[in-house]
Task: inverse folding
């Protein structure tokens, strides 16, 4: 066993009366990948914020020993000086600056305050090569995808001579291919002497790459598992995380599929800015009553764009094609028309597109269906509260009250608020875009149960997800979307990870010929 | 932390400004040798600042959407000028002239709203342009002259009092006293009712005694004010208009779908749009509303001065914006209340008034108001970050 690079001892941190961390101790060995897992709200991010100096010394009790001396970080700058760099879930890159400028932001290659552009570009190029990103350092961040942005973040950390790299959910927004590239890079860096602490909900990748795993639950360390021999499996981790064994990750549902209720024919959508670029081309699909239909595909395949364009043309320009519901053709030009027609879209990006974060739970839940709880234009507060509290109880949103601001809820509970909003609107067709992104195992199970309940009530659900096991476990039927087209339709018996990837690959080959 | 301490902290911002206002008034009462609370001065305070408060209400809606309106002073001046020309030069009746004024205000608001909401040009730029455009129109219309005088009925709106001015009990106007008592009863009933509703849905409520204390304090304040008005000419008509506007806009912002949509739009426009809120339309109507309130302010200014002047309304926009921010509105949108804005407006008004009585020169008054604005917003940010980190 190698020596210890970091030891956190008896860390306790309280937020207005709530203990976020309770006597937490953990040791990280030099040159290892140390995973930190736990449900949302277990205290992972808080612990890492303490380590990186976001919460300064004195804000918490306990001690941090790093490379043999005690640390009392007052700010992020202090921890970075010692080689501890944290990469947050929400990337800290400036979209309209170039990759090079971002890499050296706050750490500029300059002489007497004047930036040396040649040195910046050259050094950025070297770092990009190190992280395996083949991009021009002068490209704007806004022009590259999330996966590449994540690599830029790592390059930025390397520029700061990182010794201990903390990654908070680095693969949450990445597809499988990008994820494995990123994880491969971490393994490479490990050999070069960079220790990593990895926070992730994707247990499969944790089991695969990490050397040891610390599990937090309710602000306490449950245990630290040694995974040097890669013997630990997901079920073992889940058991510690939730404190019980989850027998089945996907709840059972007896599907009662009825007649076709929703049909899309020859749907075409063009890009909102580059109006010649076709994003969705000739897509036709149908959906039956009580059915859960999955949209599988790689990131950027056009699934979100398809869903949003169907939802009152909230994405894209120059739409063409026909939408039928219950046999009647619909002409939807706005979101409110879609809602009236019983179509709802639950966004993949709850913080930016789903919630008004500064408002309370009640207002967020009722926002899409205020008409239901109003007399004319005047909101009936009694009705509104009753409807919201019904949703809160049914969804089991854990909160101090309906007047709690949604910003302060955990990810899983925020997701439940977004779902509640749309369930209250009583749609017949519910499009769920990545409904379980960034939420923990327990909350995922609850969301699955809700989806099953809705389907058994006769609602029809389109589910978009980048996690294939989730689609395979939940859907009656799966459409595979590739480059804006449907490249395959698989029913439950024929759907598997291999058959989905097969559709994608065949289609790509087909278009190239 | 104890519950009371926490509740107090949560509502610190809300109470803070009221306490600050009371403190400033008390301070001026001492430094001005008792002039501050003379019935005549309190009456004047309302008469002099009514139009800023009216503008501030409209401005609050703009600010809640995350925008701003710099044109209100110019629009007010233009409306004043048009109605003055109609009444003085063309002998138009008071009501038709006012109606034309409101229509012009609405049109000016619609003009701004169209560019902001549908063409998506930043509000700061559109209304900066509007500020110049309508100031220019005003000057062109008046050709550098002052139009006056107006009919008595037009002046009454801005400077008149409720009838039965001389029905007195001792030295006090009976109407004002009765109004105070009536409002107290209604207010207490409303507050207790809302407490019961909150309890019904298990919302956090402050202990009963605290509610009773605050009701008593508010009732005392209202009756003190009406007592002051009673000691002079009774209730100013403009006060009635102002109270009506406060009630209407509080209701609209807190209890209607439109109000909820405005806050949702300011809090997260994309989420609001994807929830079916017609964001463009809401934004447009917020500016039309601002135009109409600017027109009202313009008419009141003209009526009060008994003249329309090319320079009328200069700097009003800044006072109105200041009132909103002192009153707790957030510059990034989604946060702010009508009542808060009115309190903020009075903080500025009392500062102006108190310093003038004390004989502080106008130059210094500006700077002091600037510091107060900065201090209030700093206090806001400070309490927010503290409540987050602890």
Result:
């Amino acid at each position: 066993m190698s020596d210890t690079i970091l030891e956190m001892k008896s860390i306790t941190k309280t937020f207005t009366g709530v203990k976020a961390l309770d006597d937490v101790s953990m040791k990280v060995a030099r040159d290892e990948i140390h995973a930190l897992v736990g449900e949302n709200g277990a205290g992972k991010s808080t612990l890492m914020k303490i380590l990186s100096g976001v919460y300064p010394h004195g804000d918490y009790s306990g001690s941090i020993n790093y490379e043999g001396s005690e640390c009392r970080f007052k700010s992020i700058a202090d921890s970075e000086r010692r080689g501890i760099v944290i990469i947050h879930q929400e990337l800290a890159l400036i979209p309209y600056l170039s990759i090079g400028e971002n890499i050296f932001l706050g750490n500029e290659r300059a002489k007497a305050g004047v930036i040396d552009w040649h040195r910046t570009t050259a050094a950025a190029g070297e770092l990009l090569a190190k992280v395996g990103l083949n991009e021009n350092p002068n490209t704007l961040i806004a022009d590259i995808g999330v996966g590449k942005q994540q690599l830029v973040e790592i390059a930025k950390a390397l520029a700061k001579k990182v010794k201990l790299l903390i990654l908070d959910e680095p693969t949450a927004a990445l597809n499988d291919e990008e994820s494995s590239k990123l994880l491969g890079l971490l393994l490479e860096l490990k050999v070069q002497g960079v220790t990593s602490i990895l926070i992730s909900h994707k247990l499969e990748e944790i089991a695969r790459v990490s050397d040891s795993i610390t599990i937090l639950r309710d602000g306490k360390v449950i245990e630290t598992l040694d995974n040097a021999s890669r013997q630990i499996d997901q079920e073992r981790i889940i058991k510690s995380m939730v404190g019980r064994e989850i027998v089945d990750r996907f709840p059972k549902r007896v599907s009662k599929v009825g007649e076709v209720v929703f049909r899309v024919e020859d749907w075409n959508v063009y890009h909102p800015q580059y109006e010649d670029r076709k994003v969705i081309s000739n897509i036709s699909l149908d959906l039956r009553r009580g059915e859960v239909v999955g949209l599988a595909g790689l990131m950027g395949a056009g699934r979100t764009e398809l869903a949003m364009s169907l939802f009152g043309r909230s994405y894209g320009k120059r739409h063409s094609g026909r939408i039928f519901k219950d046999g009647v053709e619909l002409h939807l030009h706005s979101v409110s028309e879609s809602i009236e027609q019983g179509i709802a879209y639950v966004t993949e990006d709850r913080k930016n597109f789903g919630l008004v974060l500064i408002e309370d739970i009640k207002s967020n839940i009722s926002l899409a269906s205020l008409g239901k709880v109003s007399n004319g234009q005047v909101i009936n507060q009694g009705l509104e509260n009753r409807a919201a509290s019904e949703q809160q109880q049914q969804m089991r949103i854990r909160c101090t009250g309906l007047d709690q601001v949604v910003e302060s809820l955990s990810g899983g509970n925020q997701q439940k608020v977004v779902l509640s909003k749309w369930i209250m609107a009583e749609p017949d067709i519910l499009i769920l875009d990545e409904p379980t992104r960034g939420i923990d195992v327990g909350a995922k199970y609850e969301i699955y149960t809700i989806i099953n309940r809705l389907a058994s009530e006769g609602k029809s659900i389109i589910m978009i997800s980048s996690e294939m096991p989730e689609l395979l476990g939940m859907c009656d039927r799966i459409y595979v979307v590739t480059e804006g087209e449907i490249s395959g339709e698989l029913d439950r018996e024929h759907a598997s990870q291999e058959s989905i990837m097969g559709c994608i690959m065949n289609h790509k080959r087909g278009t190239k010929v | 932390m104890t519950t009371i301490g926490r509740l107090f902290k949560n509502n610190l911002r809300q109470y803070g400004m009221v306490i600050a206002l009371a403190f400033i008034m008390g301070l001026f009462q001492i430094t001005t040798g008792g002039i501050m609370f003379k019935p005549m001065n309190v009456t004047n305070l309302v008469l002099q600042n009514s139009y800023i408060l009216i503008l501030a209400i409209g401005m609050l809606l703009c600010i809640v959407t995350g925008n701003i309106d710099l044109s209100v002073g110019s629009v007010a001046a233009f409306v004043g000028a048009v109605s003055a020309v109609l009444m003085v030069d063309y002998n138009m009746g008071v009501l038709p002239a006012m109606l034309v004024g409101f229509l012009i205000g609405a049109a000016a608001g619609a003009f701004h709203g169209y560019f902001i909401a549908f063409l998506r040009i930043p509000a700061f730029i559109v209304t900066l342009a509007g500020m110049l455009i309508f100031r220019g129109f005003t000057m062109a219309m008046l050709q550098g002259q002052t139009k006056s005088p107006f009919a008595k009925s037009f002046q009454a709106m801005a400077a008149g009092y409720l009838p039965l001015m001389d029905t007195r009990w001792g030295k006090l106007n009976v109407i004002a006293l009765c109004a105070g008592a009536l409002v107290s009863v209604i207010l207490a009933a409303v507050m207790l009712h809302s407490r019961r509703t909150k309890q019904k849905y298990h919302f956090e409520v402050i202990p009963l005694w605290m509610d009773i204390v605050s009701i008593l304090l508010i009732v005392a304040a209202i009756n003190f004010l009406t007592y002051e008005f009673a000691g002079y000419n009774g209730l100013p008509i403009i006060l009635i208009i102002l109270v009506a506007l406060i009630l209407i806009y509080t209701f609209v912002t807190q209890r209607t779908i439109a109000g909820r949509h405005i806050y949702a739009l300011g809090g997260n426009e994309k989420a609001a749009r994807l929830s079916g809120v017609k964001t463009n339309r809401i934004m447009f109507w917020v500016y039309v509303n601002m135009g109409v309130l600017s027109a009202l302010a313009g008419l009141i200014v003209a009526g009060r001065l008994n003249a329309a002047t090319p320079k009328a309304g200069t700097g009003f926009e800044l006072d109105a914006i200041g009132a909103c921010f002192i009153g707790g509105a957030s510059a990034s949108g989604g946060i702010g209340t009508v009542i808060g804005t009115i309190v903020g407006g009075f903080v500025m008004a009392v500062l102006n008034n108190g310093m003038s009585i004390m004989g502080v020169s106008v130059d210094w008054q500006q700077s002091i108001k600037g510091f107060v604005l900065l201090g209030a917003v700093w206090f806001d940010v400070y309490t927010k970050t503290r409540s987050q980190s602890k």
